From TrEMBL:
Protein name according to UniProt: Auxin-induced protein 5NG4
Subcellular location: Membrane
Main location: membrane
One Pfam family per UniProt: EamA
Any one annotated GO CC term: membrane
Family the UniProt entry places it in: Belongs to the drug/metabolite transporter (DMT) superfamily. Plant drug/metabolite exporter (P-DME) (TC 2.A.7.4) family.
Domain of life of the native organism: Eukaryota
Single GO term (MF): transmembrane transporter activity
Phylogenetic placement of the source organism: Eukaryota, Viridiplantae, Streptophyta, Embryophyta, Tracheophyta
Membrane-crossing residue ranges in chain numbering: 52-73, 79-101, 113-135, 141-162, 174-194, 227-247, 259-280, 286-311, 323-342, 348-367
Length: 429
């Protein structure tokens, strides 16, 4: 058999990365013919699996946050106070890394950047978190997680309204985004307006049977009103989070230190949340927190979901892209449904299941459109750079850099291929 040459493996890997899809089969055959040792194959499999394992672990982390927070809210903790403590923990856990890792690359703070950070803090820690926790209090963890899956669709709508994204309805990827958005909104409305009968889970049947006392008509009406109110709160929270993504995209172009930006958003958001809490909560006793579930909820949400999860998700997005990371969000809904029925004896309604299916279907339609769009951008960086000249009067530096890098890589690959073919011909002769 042919000797296994590291240079050949690197060459074929590079070719596989840059070659058209139609030629992948031939390159895979070359890789297989050269043979990759079992040790290399195993390490390669582990390396490729890391993003998947990381995202699955993140979904368990997010699911745990929803369950623990729901327990804390049910025990009487004010969601305004929870937001304050959560982002105080988040600030303290992120700040050291931002100060150390970005001390040489942190841009100069200006008044306009500070005002953008102020708005981001208002949208994220204050509006989004308070409305989400209020919605979680009135509904259930599974319902809130399912509704939060409308985020990509809402972000797409806002991007179109802000002219950050254009819609060419003749292209399939834009059709997928539009249809996915409509289906997602339909699913959210279905979940809000229709509860339906309770769907019994095998493991929670006994728990529901023990607590199956039929509520009075007045109590049932109050519960239904709370459900609709909670649904509206979660939708408002999702809209605020989508707005944060839009403004953050503008801010990161001028303030590229990501960790520092997150630290400032959490810090300013903590101060804003304190002011909101003083207005909404007039009893000083609400601030009291001990070594109990309230402290666990605040620390877990701040450290795990606002710090560790942010860092890990950033690594995954940097390696695999935002579409890959977003594709795992429905898994959290399933985990929360199982954990909620176990721990909280949560009742799952038919309307929630059907609406959740519609939301997930719409989500993947939007993500598929985004994936196709990212493929086209990677395939044609030079036209994209020129397009930015037409729109803004100046080229997009990032797109030009990508174009130059691709040009240099293609030139190097071409030279490597010619050398490789020449050596093989001389060997055959």
């Amino acid at each position: 058999s042919s000797p296994r040459l590291p240079s050949d493996r690197k060459l074929c890997s590079a070719l596989l990365f840059s070659a058209p899809r139609s030629s992948h089969l031939g390159l895979i055959v070359v890789l297989d013919h050269r043979g990759m040792g079992s040790e290399g194959g195993c390490s390669s499999f582990v390396r490729r699996s890391k993003p998947y394992i990381a995202m699955v672990c993140l979904q368990f982390g997010y699911a745990g946050m929803n369950i623990i927070t729901k327990v804390s809210l049910n025990r009487g903790m004010s969601h305004y106070v929870l937001v304050v403590y959560r982002h105080a923990f988040a600030t303290l856990s992120i700040a050291p890394f931002a100060l150390i890792l970005e001390r040489k690359v942190r841009p100069k703070m200006t008044f306009s950047i500070f005002m953008q950070i102020f708005v981001l803090a208002m949208l994220g820690p204050v509006i989004d978190q308070n409305f989400y926790y209020a919605g979680l209090k009135y509904t259930s963890p599974t319902f809130s997680c399912a509704m939060s899956n409308i985020l990509p669709a809402m972000t797409f709508v806002m991007a179109v309204l802000c002219r950050m994204e254009k819609v060419d309805i003749k292209k399939v990827r834009y059709q997928a985004k539009v249809v996915g958005t409509l289906v997602t909104v339909a699913g959210a409305m279905f979940m809000t307006l229709y509860k339906g009968p309770i769907v019994e889970m095998v493991w929670s049947k006994n728990a529901h049977t023990r607590s199956s006392a039929k509520p009075s008509p007045a109590d049932q009406e109050a519960t239904d009103k709370d459900w609709v109110k909670g649904s509206i709160f979660v939708i408002i929270a999702t809209l605020a989070w989508a707005g944060l993504f839009i403004i953050q995209a503008f801010t990161l172009k001028r303030y590229s230190a990501n960790l520092s930006l997150t630290t400032l958003i959490c810090f300013v958001g903590t101060l804003q949340a304190i002011a909101v809490t003083f207005v909404m909560e007039h009893k000083t006793s609400v601030w009291t927190i001990g070594f109990d579930m309230n402290l666990l909820a605040a620390a877990y949400a701040g450290i795990v979901t606002s710090s560790i999860a942010y860092y890990v998700q950033g690594l995954v997005i940097n390696k695999k892209g935002p579409v890959f990371a977003s594709a795992f969000s429905p898994l959290m809904m399933i985990i929360v449904a199982v954990m909620g029925s176990f721990i909280l004896a949560e009742k799952i309604y038919l309307g929630g299941i059907l609406g959740g299916i519609l939301i997930v279907a719409g989500l993947y339609s939007v993500l598929w459109g985004k994936y196709k769009e990212s493929q086209e951008k990677e395939a044609s960086p030079i036209p994209l750079a020129m397009k930015s000249v037409e729109m803004n009067g100046e080229p997009d530096e990032l797109e030009l850099q990508k174009a130059n890098n691709n040009k240099e890589m293609n030139s190097s690959l071409k030279q490597a291929v010619l050398t490789h073919v020449k050596v093989k011909e001389e060997t055959n002769v």
